[in-house]
Amino acid sequence: MHSRNLKIDVIRGIAILCVVWAHLQGFLTREIYIFHMPVFFFISGMFYRNKPKFILSKAKSLLIPYCLFNIAFAALYLLQGGQFIKRIELFSCTLTSTINGPTWFLIALFNINIIYWILDKLIKKKKLILAVCFAIAIPLYYWNCILPFDLRISIIALPFFALGKWAKDESIIERSGKPHIIIASIIYVLTALYCHCKPAIFDLHGNKLPLIFIIYYASALSAILIMMKIDWFSKQNKLNRLFASIGKRSLYIMSLHYPYMWTLFNFLTMHSPFSDKAVTNGYATISTFLILSAASFLIAIAIKWLQNTLKSNGSKHFRQEQEKTP
Questions:
Q1: Taking Cα atoms as reference points, which of 24, 50, 14, 79 lies closest to residue 281?
Q2: 20 to 30 A from 252, CA-CA: which of 10, 12, 159, 301?
Q3: R_g of the chain, CA atoms, integer Å
Q4: Alpha-carbon distance 61 to 107, whole Å?
């Protein structure tokens, strides 16, 4: 059994906290949106393996959590009634995230895995897969069509997954030196300035992307490269262990933090101890971020503990039944 990569878990942890913060639309939102979802697709590509029962394993790890989280929040909304019912009524195969916004990522990642797996089966020269992924993605980047189950978004994000696989296979991250980091930093800073001057935000799911596709892919990849080259993320210390622990539960936090975000934000705004509007907004934003991040993290731990307990009890019961068998 392979040990987990501390740096990757730390990056996942920081990235998911960036997702939570960016959803609150606080400062640095534009800078975060440049990379906050691409980094998850990139890392997933790094760990792609064409193993037996591939589709089944991805369905278990991505589609089942998607269904469970959406059913759970749909049940809560039905119990509450009122404005929340509208979210359930809007749900369809072309609007898969009306109940729980960020869970679109689970469907998109499943789609991407399957598409890449098919390409991996069909294309013998593996180095061509990256080019094919871009060839598929670019037309849909510009063709503003509506496809079921977030397929358009999945295909646009496919190159990040392929880049992650390519970078892992070719040891691109390890081979990147100081000049590459300087160039990546310049690209990222210029893109951030562009977002502020435009003003614009790179929102994959919201279909808000720059006119020139190279800007989107190059800026996100530059930010990812910078993160991957930060050696401090590999150090064993308390802060990194905390980030890594958060990173291990990033998919749960992705699915748990958003549904009641604005309800909590509005509550904290109304009950703020401050009279100044700007201070109140900052207080509500930071408090909501901390509360939801901590709550999502603790719920994720509880869910994992429950899964392990049920699995352990199931195995124990199976052994007992086997022992009874003559």
A1: 24
A2: 159
A3: 21
A4: 11
- Cα distance from N-terminal residue to C-terminal residue, the chain: 34
Q: Is 123 left (phi over 0), alpha (psi -120 to 50) or beta?
A: beta
Strand partners, 92: 95
| Two tokens, residue 249 | 């539960």
Contacts of 81-90 with CB under 8 Å at 24 or more apart are: none
CA atoms within 13 A on the CB side of 95: 9
Residue 38: which of 191, 219, 226, 220 has the closest Cα?
Answer: 220
pLDDT at res. 1:
46
**What SS3 string covers 33-72?**
HCCCCHHHHHHHHHCCCCCCCHHHHHHHHHHHHHHHHHHH
> Taking the model in full, what pTM does it have?
0.93
Sign of CA dihedral 301, 306, 311, 317: positive
CB 141 within 8 A of CB 156: yes
Q: What is the DSSP string of 220-240?
A: HHHHHHHHHT-GGGGS-SHHH
Phi, psi of 92, rounded to the nearest 5 degrees? -160, 180
Q: 171: alpha, beta or left, given left = phi > 0 and alpha = psi -120 to 50?
A: left
How far is 58 from 164, CA to CA, in rounded Å?
18
Beta strands in 86-234 (DSSP E): none
Give the Cα separation of 22 and 201 in Å (integer). Answer: 11
- Owner of token pair 């959590």: 65
* pLDDT tens readout for residues 56-103: 999 999 999 999 999 999 999 998 887 788 888 889 999 999 999 999
**Residue 3 belongs to what H/E stretch?**
none
Q: Which residues contact 191 (CB under 8 A, 6 or more apart)?
A: 34, 215, 218, 219, 222
In total, the chain counts a number of residues equal to 326
